[in-house]
Every structure is written in C-alpha cells, then in structure tokens.
Specification:
CATH architecture of the largest domain: 3-Layer(aba) Sandwich
Distance between the termini: 8 Å
Bound molecules: magnesium ion
Radius of gyration: 16 Å
Number of strands: 7
Strand order of the largest sheet: 5-4-1-6-7
Largest sheet: 5 strands, parallel
Structural class: alpha/beta
Helix content: 25-40%
Length: 155
C-alpha cells in the first residue's frame, strides 16, 4: 500500500517547537494575541528546526516503511521560507536516508495518490483525499500505536 504521512502534529511535535522558542519570541507572540491577532507560530523563522518527533512516530515510520510505499506529505507556510528548508532538514535528521526523496510539500494533498493518509487535519486538501484518511490526534486515533493498528485493519 502507499501510505502518506503528515508532518505537523503527526510525525512532528509542533508544541515542542513553541516550547523551545526564546523568551523574546514568546513575548512577541503573546503581544500579537493581546492585540487580537492570531499567534501564527508557524510563521516564526526557524521554529520548525526546533521541533521534536511525536512519541512513537519514528518507530512507527520505520515499521511502515518495511512493508509499504511511504511518502511524507506536508504543507509549508507561504510567509515563512525557513519552514520549507527546516522541514527538509527535519526529515533528513530524524528519518532514514531515503526519506528526503519522499518528502512532498503541497497545499493540495488530495492531488497525491495513495491508499491511506495519516493526518491530523482535513485542511490543505486532506479532507478531499481519495483514499482512507486516518484522522490522527482524534479519539479514534489518539497516538501512533492506534494509527499502526488502523493501518493493519485496512490491509
Ligand atoms: Mg498536521
């Protein structure tokens, strides 16, 4: 099977990037919020380089790549060019040596053909994906142990 896996809040722990930001950046984001603006953490330069893997994500990725055709499908923010390179560096740092050739950055995930998409959101085309969507981070799939079981159930 071809399995597509999202990065943020699926393989990547987005909150760990926020936690690792400097106090100056945290103060700047808090000031935005006080002004009624969104915090837009994904637009902080370099934040994606600070993020750690989700619990069990690396082991699950390795397990899936043994038996399946796995691609990483993620959206990078248009107002933060560092996110594009940081996502590539993250994949090269945390996943196997073949993973970077399997990284697809797109705002239109439904264009990518696959049997299963593991994604925490329905946005960026995930909701229109033609295969089976495992909705990561929900009650139905709260963690990677459950996600692997759901993949086996589909097989
Ligand atoms: Mg995500």
């Amino acid at each position: 099977m071809r399995i597509l896996i999202d990065l943020d809040n699926v393989l990547v722990d987005f909150q760990s990037g926020i936690d690792a930001c400097s106090d100056d950046i945290k103060a700047d984001r808090a000031a935005r919020k006080r002004r009624g603006l969104t915090e837009d953490w994904d637009e902080v330069e370099g934040i994606f380089a600070l993020m750690q893997p989700m619990p069990g994500a690396i082991e699950a990725y390795q397990e899936l790549t043994k038996r399946h055709d796995v691609f990483i499908v993620s959206t990078a923010p248009w107002e933060n060019p560092s996110a594009w390179s940081d996502k590539l560096i993250w994949v090269k740092t945390h996943l196997d040596k073949f993973a970077d050739k399997r990284l697809i950055l797109t705002h239109h995930k439904y264009l990518i053909a696959g049997d299963i998409l593991i994604d925490d959101r329905r946005k960026r085309g995930a909701g229109a994906f033609k295969g089976y969507h495992i909705h990561f981070g929900t009650d139905a799939c709260p963690d990677w142990e459950t996600a692997l079981q759901l993949v086996y159930d589909v097989m």
